[in-house]
Design a protein that fits this description.
257 residues, Alpha-Beta Plaits, mainly alpha, two-stranded antiparallel ribbon
Length: 257
């Protein structure tokens, strides 16, 4: 159990460090710079970031969100201030797709307007490798983005921004579905429904406010909003859930019998 608790300490420490480095790396996650560079036929650093996320999701799912995402680190800090208010579900989870689809369309149209891809510039409009290199960038780009994600976390609940406006999540969700369909081995959660006592420690601790205890009973831990943080794995008193690395896990609950 101590080793499991240590894993969460390491995960949260990494998230805080990445968030503190956000002023340096924010442009590597910029949805605007992808389009701006595409209009010149250039593949930008943020385009490369999204490509890596797209490919890594085949085996790692949405674990980027829980281990490396700077906005995730910010929202986890906000969640502590909001005293763990549950995040939004249902309708809120679909908002990001209405943002993502037109954004992808704009990227494609921008490259078409430029006559295709003519080059790669990882440091496109990143001054000497530092994203926030001017007062204007700080005041009109960085701080508004931080403020937006903080407000969503405070008003909508835990990881409100992940549920609603994250433009990166759809990449990982869609690729995860593809991986499941092809039964590609990947990082997953495996439950033991028969060992669950229904204490709901897993549900209360889930940063994405998922009904984890219900997922265990059904023997199906696959959920589009699961970020594979391992909170349910490491905090379950009965060690009912564990990480595994294989193709899509078959249902193991009563409904699968």
């Amino acid at each position: 159990m101590k080793q499991q608790k240590r894993r969460q300490t390491i995960r949260k420490t990494i998230l805080i460090i990445v968030f503190l480095s956000f002023p340096v790396i924010i442009n590597w996650f910029s949805p605007y710079l992808v389009i701006d560079a595409a209009l010149a036929g250039i593949i930008s650093g943020s385009f490369l970031t999204f490509t890596v996320l797209f490919l890594s999701s085949l085996v790692l799912g949405r674990s980027f969100c829980s281990w490396v995402c700077p906005a995730g680190g910010l929202q986890d800090c906000v969640a502590a201030a909001a005293q763990g208010k549950p995040g939004p579900r249902g309708w809120a989870d679909r908002i990001k797709y209405f943002i993502w689809v037109p954004w992808i369309a704009l990227i494609v149209l921008s490259f078409l307007r430029a006559g295709g891809i003519s080059g790669i510039d990882p440091l496109w409009k990143i001054d000497q490798g530092v994203s926030v290199s001017s007062a204007g960038m700080l005041l009109f780009i960085f701080l508004p983005i931080v403020f937006l994600f903080a407000i969503l976390g405070l008003t909508l609940g835990r990881r409100g921004g992940c549920h609603t406006i994250c433009w990166m999540a759809p990449f990982m969700v869609l690729v995860r579905k593809l991986a499941n369909g092809l039964r590609i081995p990947g990082l997953r959660l495996l439950p033991r429904p028969s060992a669950c006592t229904g204490c709901k420690t897993c549900t209360r601790g889930c940063p994405m406010s998922l009904e984890v205890e219900q997922m265990i009973r059904e023997g199906n831990m696959e959920h589009t909003e699961c970020i594979l943080c391992g909170e349910c794995v490491d905090n379950c008193p009965g060690q009912v859930i564990r990480f595994t690395f294989k193709g899509r896990v078959k249902r193991t609950g009563k409904q699968a019998m």
